[in-house]
Amino acid sequence: MHTTILVTGATGTVGREVVKQLSMLEGDIRVRAGVHSIIKGENLKRLPGVEVVEMDFEDPESLHAAFTHADKVFLITPFAADQIQMSKTLVDEAKKAGVKHIVKLSVIGADVEPGLQLGRWHREIEKYVEDSGIRYTFLRPTSFMQNYINYNAESIKKEGRFYGATGDGKVSYVDARDIAAVGVEALMSDEHVGKSYDITGSEALSNYEVAKLMSEVTGKQVDYMDVPDAAAKKGMTDHGIPDWMADAMIEVYSLYRSGKGAETTDTVERVTGRKPHTMRQFLEDHKDCFV
């Protein structure tokens, strides 16, 4: 009997990696990659056993089709103003379709009171999943190593520097590949049902230390430039990021400056049986993105 796993947000940083790792599993696993645009999901079609389906929140029929016969769901929603409502809509569809298990990508600190705004949003979604009656597992990672590619690669290549507002605060960055590996284990084993996992890397580094590692790995000088919150927010809004999102990110940066992002966990090793990627390993694997 085959198992169908729907991955929503399948073209995102973590979603794409979850689809890739699921496609490599042995056994009768059918992976359904939910994407906002079929064109953006073209590369996923090349992976073995992967079906790409369009999920349009303005089109209930597309959501119904995506969830039909899905046994399990890896739930990712975009960082958007209507993220909570989108998530609730997906949980409702999962319940109607008879989905047996939801693994939700959340954020570290979601269970902290009063916590950060970002965490409160995710906790509201977590509670909705809990109340749905569907079995669940919550993954609560810290900042992704891949964010250095997503948000800093351009300035590193052009200027040899990247910008932030974290001061010398250390953060236990985690590789999206490790988040996905924990998620795949959670999807494939009942022992993770009802659990919440804080997921970090094995070390905490400041942006200054990351810049030093980048310089060593790439062979070119890379500097971190710390800027005030106001300048960081202006930089984000100048690039089209809405005020509410910029404010939420500034709140996260403030937490990092205070040193509260440095805690590490052994979740990756405990769940997957192997150590998480280090920042040096990540940079070596993605060196071409920065030079």
UniProtKB/TrEMBL annotation:
Residues 2-274 form the NmrA-like domain. PANTHER family: PRESTALK A DIFFERENTIATION PROTEIN A, PTHR43162. This is SDR family oxidoreductase. It comes from the Bacteria. InterPro entries: Ergot_Alk_Oxidoreductase, NAD(P)-bd_dom_sf, NmrA-like. It holds the Pfam family NmrA.
